[in-house]
């Protein structure tokens, strides 16, 4: 991809043009909005849904005052019903000498457009192509620096599959997964049998197959300041095409990936059912079953390092103290080992 300079009004030159503009959500931050594409390899259903809504875009978010000569760059990919707002994650990376870019993928966060189905992707290669572009921005802005992708939840699943697909060229220098969505088992998604899901996804990809409030998001809103239209306490409906795409990716993980770069898989110590004001609601993963993450992590690559964070919630970066600092310290320690063994 053509070069991107680090100036405040930097342009992406070549096949697309874009300008860094002040972020409407985070003071001092800047955003670069780029057109996305639906890869030819994606399925017919994914292309049909993409053609039926707004042209997809992706948004790269840059914090103020990045290190002048960073050790490397961290690119963050959010989860479902999520977007980038965790400024303390960017601050921790900057304090460790690393630049940081957040990615709001197509139909999510800052990239949501009128007519879009929020967070919908009919093939995980759609969001993976957004990640390819964000990583290209990172490499062009800070050439020669290592790039680490930090993926949370659904973004963790996409990141793992993307890193596997790009293991020969164009991939990351390392990967960090924050409670990745590697399985639907005992998760917030009520799965259909795959045999029934696949034909439904082909015939009616936007059919709602699950809908419920996100009590987890509502709980986080008590102590974190985020846009409730972009991370919704009322939840985002699960649609057949999205669930089929997620299941296809998860089955690929279960068969084993071959990620060749260092991989840190971080998870909560325990999971529990969400109970309003229950004793475990702020100290466990109430979204995913962490035992499945533990079981599947070794199948991701040849250099998998596991991190278990006590008393942490689904997004480890949004945990109460001291769990939050424990995670951020482990993350930056991992980054340091990449450049200073």
Automatic annotation (TrEMBL):
Keywords: Hydrolase
Positions of the Serine aminopeptidase S33 domain: 69-219
UniProt entry tagged with the keyword Nucleus: no
Pfam families reported for this sequence: Hydrolase_4
GO molecular function per UniProt: hydrolase activity
The UniProt record lists the keyword Cell membrane: no
PANTHER family with a match to the protein in the record: PHOSPHOLIPASE-RELATED
Protein name according to UniProt: Alpha/beta hydrolase fold family protein
UniProt organism field: Cellulomonas flavigena (strain ATCC 482 / DSM 20109 / BCRC 11376 / JCM 18109 / NBRC 3775 / NCIMB 8073 / NRS 134)
